[in-house]
Amino acid sequence: MNEIWAGMLAAFRLIVTLDADLVEITLRSLQVSLSALVIACVIALPLGTWLAIRRFRFRRATIATLNALMGLPPVVVGLIVYLLLSRSGPFGVLGLLFTPTAMIIAQVIIITPLIASLTHQAMRELWAEYHDLLISLNTTSRQRIATLIWDGRRALLTGALAGFGRAIGEVGAIMIVGGNIDHATRVLTTAIALETGKGDFALALGLGFVLIALALLVNFAIHTLSRTEQEGTW
Amino acid sequence: MVDASILVALRDTCVKRRGKTILGPVNLDLLDDGFTIVLGPNGAGKTTLLKVLHGVERVSSGTVKWSVPDAVARQTQAYVFQRPVMLRRSVRQNLAYPLKLVGASASDIDNGVTFWAAQIGLTEMLDRPATRLSGGEKQKLALGRALIRTPRVLFLDEPCANLDGRSTREIEGVLQRANAAGTRIIMTTHNLGQARRLASDIVFLLNGRLHEQGRATDVLRAPQTPEAKAFFQGDIVE
Known about the structure:
The complex is a heterodimer. Chain A is an all-alpha fold. Chain A has ten helices and no strands.
């Protein structure tokens, strides 16, 4: 119990004094996870919608694979991205290993299947509703996807937030590809892992509270901006 | 060859699903202008016929030939469903949607929306969510949305099923004005009174086959087949 109190105090002190390290780590966490979220959404929203409206031969297998990939173990993703980006790997020349970019790549791989799968679920129902009209209006695939994404945006928001939650709280992959380097690739989760290892539970807990607060804050902010639960049921 | 005054010609058109014949074989010519009512009991193939004409139902055999190339024909058609499909947007955006798809200018969209909102009597409700409208209002919105691109041909699948007298009268008014303005209308119903009020010609279907076709006055007064006669007298035909 003492440790939790000490952790809360430490968190409070860190936040009130706007501790430079804390701010830096927090901003990097946000930068990495939000970048990964944006990139993953750009890929996953059209992909999930496309899967909902398109009939093709291996559709079932593709969707099953996508659902399975939702549970992709981050450590394994980290390992594979590490091997690809390491000096002797195929993309070694880019020199991306142990940079925030490498962490973004790993997180995109982890959350894209999750967002695509949730998108597919939501879009399947909306497509059943819109199907006749959009076919009758002679729309192109691109117009269909755009219409479904726009009209289903509230459902997609949930998917995107789930993706963000997974990214911001993820530690296994970014630890491997980022390396938890101070002032370079240290983020909240890797810092917590490090402080816990060092036995500095107060600081670790402090960082943990900041992480939770951050996740809540981003969720509230996005909900407020998109005005969900305010304009009717959709 | 398709004659100049013939809009669309069906030749031995058949639609089969899982070995069951839903429609056909049907041989049917529809002329360039008029107001066609497709009559028949449930399951007669009315909706299938409309979808075949609209090009959204695959034909198992036979042909559907429009007087213009298929792509042009599809671009200038609109379809109103029995259960109107409302986009989860405002009434205004629902009306504007077909124009946006073809890249109309903002002022054209504005003018179109204002005009058609007045036509269908929904001017007051432009900024309401379309999904919150009543059944009659939804159907009127669907009709306005179908007419906003001034289609050459408008298909309607029982647009007045489940509507009360007043909504039905309003919708019929819009349809007659559109027809007078040059839109070819092909509509299904099993309301005989509606057929009498609107039709210039009638197509009578039963069990997927064409039983009777001709000018409305002739068909309604003196049907040629016993099935059509029975149906028009109000008997139950199966």
